[in-house]
Amino acid sequence: MRYAIYFTPPSGDPLTLAAASWLGRNVYSGHAVEHPDVPGLGVHEIAFHTALPRRYGFHATLKAPFLLRDDCTEAGLLRDLMRFASRIEPFEFPRLEVARLGDFYGLLLPRPCEPLDYLAAAVVQEFDGYRAPFSEAEIERRNPEGLSASQFANLHRWGHPYVMEEYRFHMTLTGPLLSKDFQRVEHALRGYFDPLLGARVTFSNLALFCEREPGAPFQVHSLHPMGRISARKIA
Q1: Dihedral sign for Cα atoms in the order 171, 64, 23, 225
Q2: CATH fold of 2-234, please?
Q3: In contact, 60 and 209? CB cutoff 8 Å
């Protein structure tokens, strides 16, 4: 089983429900969801363009998927994640927006958010002791020749190239697209998601996701509330 530490809104949040429909799968229940009717983009096209992110579900990565070290347990990971979350106060980050990152689209932040960048780096460092190290063959499968020197160093040290100074918050909504499809897909995404993006989002929990067997879809295992209230519950 692989684990990942992600951000995702609560199960009943309108953004969660809209994203579940867009991607075709609810990351909490694991159930398939019908794609929406979106002007300018057929349902079959949405299904095709969301095939890759559908498996991972609606999320933003903090700690990328990892196998547990042989000397670590799920119970220990859960305990430490609860304690860690209790030490971090919830915070709001800027209004999300539909934007392109490379050749895919997602929900991104229009500007850096210092509390978020700090939290992302802290999660990577705090839980790296639970991650089974990569073999050389596993590193090669991640195409290290396409990485910058900093990204390559991160891959070796932290198991993922896009952490620390390379980190950029994003909630993926499509797989890689051809340039000829950018404008049409972006227009459809904005029409569907923009009405839900007027308010700031509160980052108030850490989500542990799991992949129960290789190639299986990722699903929410547990949510870990942030802040002093959860600390009192643990005590």
Answers
A1: negative
A2: Cyclic Phosphodiesterase; Chain: A, (3.90.1140)
A3: no
